[in-house]
Structure formats: C-alpha cells, structure tokens
Predict the 3D structure of the following.
Amino acid sequence: MDFSYTPEQDAFRATLRAWLEKTSRETLGRGGDAMGASTASLLDVRDDAQWNKMREYHRKLYEAGYAALHWPVEWGGSGAGVIEQSIYQDEVLRLGLPLYGCNQLALDRIGPTIALMGTEEQRKRFLPKMLTGEEIWCQGYSEPNAGSDLAGLQTRAVLEGDNFVVNGQKVWTSLAHRADWQVLLVRTDPSAPKHKGISYLLVDMHSPGITVRPLVQITGESGFNEVFYDNVRVPKENLVGELNQGWQVSIATLMYERVSGGTRHPIERTISELVELAKSIDFQGVPAREHPYVRQRLAQFVSESRCLRLSRYRSLSAQLRGRVPGPESSFGKLFATELNLRVAMFADELLGAYGALEGGMAAVERGKWAHRTLAARGLTIAAGSSEIQHNIIGERVLKLPKG
C-alpha cells in the first residue's frame, strides 16, 4: 500500500494548513487550545460571544470551500476526492478544531441522510442553509428510557390532516439550545413491533410547544439538553422516507455519525501532548520520560493511534470504491473513544493527586487533563455506547449468533 502523496496533494495540505492556522487564530484565538480542553467543548458553548466566534469561523470555512469538502458539488459541497478529505481531517484534528465548524451534526450526518433519502424539495430547502451555517441542526434520538435501546422510543406523532402532532421528550440532545432545526425520531404506529412504526421528521425548533432545558455535565459544560414536545405541529412534507419506515432512515444517520466518530477526536494530538507532559514531570522519583513503564505505555498509545489512522484509511478506500458507510464504521468509533479513555486515565496516573485539579495554581496545564478525564467516559457512550458497538461488530460484521 502506497501512503505517499502526489505533489498536488502536498500543495493542498500546505495551503490548507496555512489557512486553518491563520483563520482559527484570527477568529477563535490560537487554534483549538483557546476554546477549551477538548474539541467537543467547541460545540458546547452557551456564551453568546463564544458562539458568535464559532459562527464566524464556520462562515469563513464555507466561503473558502472547506465547510463540506466531502459533499458532492450538486449538494453545494466542494466534491473533493477522498484523499483531500483525509488530508483535511488530519489538519483539522492536528489543531484540535471541529471538523465542520458550528454545524457539525448537519454536515457530517443529517445533511447526507437528507440528500440520500429525502425528497428533492427537502434537499433544496435544507442543504444550502446547512452549509452556510444559517440554520443550525440538532438530533432528537435518545429518550429517558430509550438510549442504547433507541428502538424503545415513546415520543408519539399523530397525523392530523396536513400535520403530525408530536408529544413526548428527548434527552442528551446536543446543541438543542442553539438549533433552528432538528431531526426527530417519533413513534407513529404504537401497535407495530418496536423497530417498526417509527418515522423520521424534520422539526422547526422554534415551533410552539417545544421547551429546551440544559443538562449540566460533570465537566461543568451544558451542551446537552432535555427537549419536551407539547402538541408540536410538524408539516407532513417534513417526513423523510416513508411513514413508519423511519428506522431505516435513522440507521443511515447513525452510520454517518459513527464514521465521523472514529475520525473527529484528535487522539493523535492528545497523545502528542501526553508525551510532552511526560517530559516535564517526575514519576516514581525519576523523570517520567525516562521511566520504562511510562515509555512502554506511551509507545503503546502511539502504536494504537497509528492503527486507528490505518483503519480510517481503509474506510476511505471503501468509499473510493463507492460503498456507503456500513457497520464496519463501528470499529473506528469504538477504538477511538476507548483509546481516548485509556489515555486520559494514564494521564491521571502520571499526575497523581494533581490530576484531580481543574483550577488554581497547582493545576497542571490549567487543568485540561482533569477535564479530559471527566469527559472521556461520556464519549464511549455518545453515538452508541461501546457495548452497542461490540454487538454491532459481533452480529453484523463477524456474523456471530446473538447472545
């Protein structure tokens, strides 16, 4: 396998790198570091000034043609090749920036789903404003009693004339407090088996009857929300796919999400920062970088991160052959989030009692490692827990019998 790049691809990387470094510094301040301890926190902002910076950065991404390199030209994207997309991902993650500006959910999963399974009218209405960031999107999937078992959802939608009337609740809804629109899974046939009778709606978040309440995480951030629906009316032309066949549409969204989940975390950057940390602290009475145990663990993390990159290349190769995301995408999501958790826990081990400090003069590197430890476990749950990913891989990839 040849991992070298053509002169044209090297030139693309150089131009992109210079643009990202300059633009992120001008709009966000010092790239990803200035915005928080993790890439995820870039999307969790409730401060209006911070959010406006993110929208400005998104607008510049769009104007430069980088907002949706992976979208075909007919959808309004740049129609870039898979190699260019891979280079873009590498450079964005190197800086710890979000892949798709302030509209991550729209560009990496919702837009492609609408383009693949929506009507022509839906494509024309929604895709352009996703790209520009004029309309921010969120995803209404999980419920208090339907998280990992998503098909157990109970939010109801009843068709009355030209509208669905929605009642129920969603939880863990990222960006609901900023969103203009939402993709919403609802039960439209309660008598059908639980994977049947589900429909996929596009909902205006400014509709009467919608209430959004923040959920504060252990990190102190509140990017997640509860969303309540009280007789919310949704035009029936906002149904994606067939009535009662929304499970198939939702699976397409989840597959796109899990492809992104294996690539959007800057794990190589995090490991590089861990190596630098080991150069500046002691461990068991000697410089950490000289301790054989520490050196062995760091080498293992670097090796695993390289394996993750090769796995991503394999996924990109499949896309070059025209394949859509499938259950194999669970590999990347599972491996990336579990590796990130191990890295965070090892940083805690290195720092000892200081690893628990997020603030104050004694906090190491402004407490970013403590923040990462608190956030890491959640990433193994979001977008389908590690246990769910194991089941998908076992049943749908390895064809093992169900337990």
